[in-house]
Amino acid sequence: MKQDFDSGAYWEHRYRRGRDSGDGSYGRLAQFKADFLNHFVLSNGITSVIELGCGDGAQLELATYPQYIGVDISPTALEICRSSFRDDYTKSFISYELLHEMPSQDLALSLDVIFHLVEDSIFERYLRDLFGSSGKYVIIYSSDREEDTPAPHVRHHKFTPWIAKNMKGWKLSGTTKNPFREDAQHPESTSFADFFVYEKLKRAPDG
């Protein structure tokens, strides 16, 4: 267990030093994610998307969403996104502190975020916020296993049982494996993450 690690401070420091969101936001990994998400948005009639942990917006460059809200804890990441998409009026970016002022969207996204949530309290708060941000679908792209790592900013979580226990109004409707499986020899172009699609359960009619 990593003690005294501050995820928010880590990412703000990282972006301020000019580093990016990570290898998963570039190359074939980014294209795979974009193809999956763009198809999902189109085929399910999604009109509004919110992403918790938008980072520097590199992955977003490949997205075709009708309306998009990016949320992040890093002020520097938000500045980068606002600059990159300043002429795109379909996209807006807000601080995590303002998340609860936003209405729910059709789809909430979590892409390559959960395994960076080192602290248990942050992990649980994030998942509650993620599902609270959507009225229809949640898509998570992450590993799904319990494992600590030598990297201070990476801790894998087995999140599916937590969601099944704590998010009773949702069902896991599908999973899609990432075709570029984790390879220690090629970490820049492979990943341990997969897609997990959750759908909000419809309430039975009264009577």
From TrEMBL:
Entry superkingdom: Bacteria
One GO BP: methylation
GO terms assigned for molecular function: methyltransferase activity
Alphabetic keyword roster: Methyltransferase, Transferase
Location of the Methyltransferase domain: 49-130
InterPro entries referenced in this protein's UniProt entry, alphabetically: Methyltransf_25 (IPR041698), SAM-dependent_MTases_sf (IPR029063)
Listed name of the protein: Methyltransferase
